[in-house]
Structure formats: C-alpha cells, structure tokens
Amino acid sequence: MPTTVVGLDERLEGGIPVGSMVLVAGTAGSLKSSLVYRILHHQVCTTGRKAMFVSFEQSQEQMLAQMARLGLGQQLPAGLNLVDLTEFRTQVAEVDDQPWLETFLALTQRYVAQSECDLLAIDSLDALYALAALDNPRAQLFHFLHGLRALNVTTFLISESPRGSERFGHFGIEEFLSDGIIHLRVREEERGNHTALRRYLGVVKMRQTAHDMDYHPLLLVDGRFELVVD
Ligand SMILES: Nc1ncnc2c1ncn2[C@@H]1O[C@H](COP(=O)(O)OP(=O)(O)O)[C@@H](O)[C@H]1O
Ligand SMILES: [Mg+2]
User: Fold this and answer.
1) Is residue 175 domain-resident?
2) I need a labelling partner for 29 at 20 to 30 A (CA). Which of 38, 68, 164, 173 fits?
3) Closest ligand 1 atom to 123 CA
C-alpha cells in the first residue's frame, strides 16, 4: 500500500504490506494526523477501499479544514468515514469505571465487519488511553491490540511522543505488537541567529520488508509529502 510520500515507497519495497498494524509515532506537529489521513484518503479515492479514521483529538471540521489545505478537498470522499469522538471524550471523561477500551474495540469490530472496511486509523492512542480508565494497562492493552490485529485490516495507530522521548508507544507494548513503526521526528537545528525546526521520517520497523534505518528530511510542499534522499 503506497504511503503517498515521494521517495518512501521505494525504500519500503513498494509500500506498507496490506493488513499491517503500523504505529505512527512522533511529537506534536510532526504531521502524524496529516500523513495518516492522506494515506487513507488516497486509498479510498484510487482503489475504492473503505476506511475509517477515528479522531479523538480534532473535530471533523478541524480535520477537514486542515486536509483542505493539503489539497484533499473540503468534502469527505464516499468510503472514508471520519468519526469525530472529541465530544464523546469530554462527555465520558466524567463517567468512571467504564471499560471504554473494550467497548471501543467491540464497536470497531462490529463496524469493520458490517461496512467491510479495509483501513482503520486511531488518532491518537494517547487520547484513547486518557478516556479509558486502565487499571491494568499492559493486560488491557495487550487484549485491545490483539483484537485490532485480528481484524486483518491495515491499521494506523497514531502515538504522540513527548518531546525528547525515545519511546514510540506509551506502554512499550505498542512497539512489539505492531508490524511497523514509522517515526516522525522534529529536530531543532541551529542556524546562525535562529533555531530551525526540521521534520524527519524514519522507518524503525516494517515486517516483511527490507528497509533502511535512516531518518530522512520530510517536506510538505504544495500538499505533497516528500522525503529528501541523497
Ligand atoms: N502545507 C504545510 N506545510 C508544512 N507544514 C504544515 C502545512 N500545513 C500545516 N502544517 C503544519 O503541520 C502541523 C500539523 O500537522 P498534524 O498532522 O496535525 O501533526 P500531528 O498530528 O503530528 O500533531 C502544524 O504544525 C501545521 O502548522
Ligand atoms: Mg495529530
């Protein structure tokens, strides 16, 4: 499945293996949401696959406005279901002792089966954790991620890393249960009298694929993602 990032697919022997569960990790502003939305949008528009993007962080309106700036239009293409759970998050935050993670998994399983959805994105795992009261996080997360994997749809799990963190997932479990890890880094670079922030993309892991381990600069120019590879 192509990533839509110019220069990346050839480094992945063509793209992301269909059916993989991929962790997309990075600090705030590293383009995680934009990249994942773009991959789903591209798949829906060019192959007719169906996709669901679950947003816990940005409303549908905010997402569409941001994606319109990337040239992806103001309208959702048929086949792309952008589920806005930002309100849900504020409403359920007050209700304790609910197994939200299990409930969310069960609803997702039902949706995928009923709609024959091929791609799934969760933005972000951290926002989901914040609303799910996890009394035994490792066991609950293990069960949750196994359940997602068993769906056999290509899944993108967005993970927000704190600045300077070496962890891709909050609990560490995400890293070994995922088939792939795409890491988006924002690096500070001193340029004379100012500090520039530069984005880099690295493929840390992609099962079934020979890939390099280098981080390359990631540009977003005229709505097009591009790796700078020399
Ligand atoms: N055309 C563009 N080129 C480069 N950066 C952009 C462009 N449009 C938006 N941005 C920046 O992208 C960031 C938002 O990307 P987003 O995908 O939401 O990141 P994340 O999900 O990792 O927090 C913001 O910092 C915004 O300023
Ligand atoms: Mg985001």
Assistant:
1) yes
2) 173
3) 21
